[in-house]
Design goal:
The protein has 681 residues and is of the alpha/beta class. Helix content is 27%, strand content 21%. The longest helix is centred in the first third of the chain and has 19 residues.
């Protein structure tokens, strides 16, 4: 049924309207019983539902209901699979309907500016195009179930250090091309019901009271129609925030800010029409959920299998000297490392899920009838300690020496990365690096399986035979790891971020995280691979890299036109063939390189991608489209996107460093640039 929202608002008292603009408690919005406005619940969870029943908190300290923990965004972005992210969203939407949650707080699309950011595990990528595509699909999936999403944290929230007060100092072009672009397509195409504003200031103004950000860009330019909510405790001045476009303050303020709004309307400093508009936005989303309420349950086992499938599609095989897949029979294989038994599969903080089930690799290997090789186990290290335990080390070395293959399950302990603080370095605990070194002395056949929300330095990378990057892959992590290790599934994830050789190589290194008052984004648009590839720097593993158990050949790249203008679309097609012996999926990445010389730009930028499944020997033609925006940069002279007339290269690659095919297209712009005459013209 269609609600007459304006009539409902007109029947509210001033106090009731002000009350709708802040939470009733930690997780609920207020209702107005006499007008049929229900109280609804919002809950954390980009990768699973964190619904708290009694004692509520924001940082995951108190228990929440049992739910399914899906792989985190640092992993799912590596799937490069829009349909998979939509499927994840649909599952989350079903869980929210079953648990009576109106809005799930996510996805989070902040750019991975530095590998040290404590919340990188929640964020998709260093690349805004990839982040926005993944987010749009996730949002569409959740909202197909009439449950809202809250894309976050808007905007330029790229660190935890002093996040409540620090100002992100960013020039206009960088902000538009990198940090806002991650949100833009997700808002335009995904149409999230809500947007969550961040804690930090942007160029001196709090995000929560930034009219340019919350109204001029978000609503007027991008067409956002839902409501803007604050991150929990991100409000500085409530009335100023309301005027800027911040509709809902979370959590409850104990009535204090409601009273401030009432007083401002009464003394004429706040136009009541501004308040009415905010309440209308909030009510529209409340009723969208309430009027499509579908009580019921969800199948936890089915969702656990989906979590496993997503993990399988998202893990990245970084290196393989031929040791993988492992033999299913007739060999002795040592699983070494505590994460084999008790895997780390999610990050800490507000997205922490109380998982209904957890499957580690050791248990998973024992449950698969296809695997009859003798698997032994040694703990190797204590995740609570950085120092080596000599007894655990000796036991692990002995197990490795007596085996045909050693598989070391390593990575970052919980305490190393979480919401609330940033990492201070990029290293794994020394006890784990020592464990890998000592095992390599006695066992030449060694695989490392990583559990981490953000890149780690790998001083041993050249010495081990294979590296499987699991990231934080949810509660079914072990089942997916074992299937990939033993060849029951073919790895097909690719890196959504560059893994540098060392922390000091990162472009933000000299300016992260600032002095607590401000943090300067002096690297500009040269973030991640845009920096490393333009400088032709050595990296450990490049953006978009990921190996398979088969091989793929690219050929016959075709462009639908040789020249295009601002209003045209370019279709790029090419053939991909599986030239190996097993079925697999390949992620074809399409980059654009500006050869006009009109602006200082990265050597290439990702502008589309597709994932294709191929049987051995099978060949398919894939198509991707590019438009003006694919060629454009943000021109601060006209405050708009601009692609200069000239030549652009279209690059199809298996990673940003593995370009297979190249074609050139000529672009002709119809947009004139202003010509300013001055004394030196």
């Amino acid at each position: 049924m269609e609600r007459d929202i304006r009539t409902i608002v007109s029947q509210m008292t001033l106090e009731e309207k002000a009350g709708m603009c802040s939470g009733r408690d930690f997780w609920h919005l207020k209702g107005v019983e006499r007008l049929g406005v229900p109280e609804v619940m919002v809950s954390d969870g980009p990768h699973g539902l964190r619904k708290q029943n009694e004692k509520a908190d924001h940082l995951g300290a108190n228990e929440s209901i049992k739910a399914v923990c899906f792989p985190t965004a640092c992993a799912t972005a590596c799937s490069f699979d829009r349909e998979l992210l939509r499927e994840l969203g649909e599952a989350l939407g079903d869980e929210c309907q079953a648990e009576d949650v109106s809005v799930i707080l996510g996805p989070a699309v902040n750019i991975k500016r530095s590998p040290l950011c404590g919340r990188n595990f929640e964020y998709f990528s260093e690349d805004p195009y990839l982040a926005s595509q993944m987010a749009a699909a996730h949002i569409q999936g959740v909202q197909s179930k009439n449950v809202g999403t809250s894309i976050k944290h808007f905007a330029a929230n790229n660190q935890e250090y002093r996040r409540l007060s620090c100002s992100s100092e960013i020039d206009e072009r960088t902000l538009r091309e990198i940090y806002l672009a991650a949100f833009e397509t997700a808002v335009r195409d995904g149409k999230p019901d809500t947007v969550m504003c961040s804690y930090n200031k942007i160029n001196g103004t709090f995000a929560s009271e930034n009219h340019w950000l919350l109204t001029e860009v978000l609503r007027d330019e991008w067409g956002f129609e839902g409501y803007v909510m604050s991150d929990w405790g991100a409000v500085n001045d409530r009335v100023r925030g309301l005027e800027a476009g911040l509709d809902l303050e979370m959590p409850a303020s104990g009535g204090h800010t409601d009273a401030e709004i009432v007083a401002a309307v009464k003394d004429g400093t706040l136009d009541e029409a501004v308040l009415n508009r905010a309440v209308e936005r909030i009510l529209r989303i409340i009723f969208k959920f309430a009027d499509h309420r579908r009580p019921g349950d969800f199948d936890k086992e089915k969702h656990d299998r989906l979590a496993e499938k997503i993990a399988e599609e998202s893990m990245v095989l970084l290196k393989n000297d031929g040791l993988l897949p492992l033999p299913k029979a007739g060999k002795k294989i040592a699983f070494i490392g505590k994460f084999a038994q008790k895997p780390r599969f999610q990050g800490g903080g507000s997205s922490h899920i109380n998982s209904c089930k957890i499957t580690g690799a050791l248990a998973a290997a024992g449950q698969l009838p296809e695997i009859t090789s003798d698997i032994t186990y040694a703990q190797g290290y204590d995740t609570a300690e950085e120092r080596t335990d000599p007894a655990l080390l000796a036991e692990a070395v002995k197990a490795a020496e007596e085996a045909d293959v050693a598989v070391i399950f390593a990575g970052l302990p919980d305490a190393f990365e979480s919401e609330g603080y940033d990492r201070s370095h990029m290293q794994m605990p020394e006890c784990q690096n020592e464990l890998i070194r000592e095992i390599l002395r006695v066992q030449k056949n060694t695989v490392v399986v990583l559990h981490n929300g953000s890149p780690v330095e790998m001083p041993w990378a050249g010495d081990v035979n294979a590296i499987l990057e699991s990231y934080l892959c949810g509660q079914a992590v072990g089942a997916a790891q074992v299937r990939l290790l033993f060849g029951l599934a073919n790895p097909c994830g690719k890196l959504a971020e560059t893994i540098p050789l060392k922390l000091q190589d990162n472009p933000s290194y000299l300016n992260f995280p600032g002095d607590g008052q401000t943090v300067e984004y002096k690297e500009g648009v040269f973030v991640g691979y845009r920096y490393y590839d333009t400088k032709e720097m050595d990296v450990r593993f490049p953006f978009g890299h990921g190996l398979s158990s088969t091989t793929f050949q690219y050929s016959d790249m075709q462009l639908s036109r040789g020249q295009l203008s601002d209003s045209d679309t370019l279709t790029v097609s090419l053939k991909v063939k599986n030239t190996g012996t097993v079925a697999g999926k390949e992620i074809v990445q399409l980059y654009v390189a500006d050869r006009t010389g009109a602006a200082n730009r990265p050597v290439k930028e990702l502008k589309n991608f597709t994932k294709v499944f191929l049987e051995p020997g099978q060949e398919k033609t894939v198509e991707m489209t590019l438009d003006k925006r694919s060629f454009a940069w943000y021109n601060t002279r006209i405050h708009d996107w601009y692609a200069a007339t000239g030549d652009y290269e279209i690059l199809a690659g298996a990673s940003s460093r593995d370009i297979r095919l190249t074609k050139t297209v000529h672009f002709v712009t119809e947009t004139p640039l202003p010509f300013h005459i001055h004394s030196k013209t």
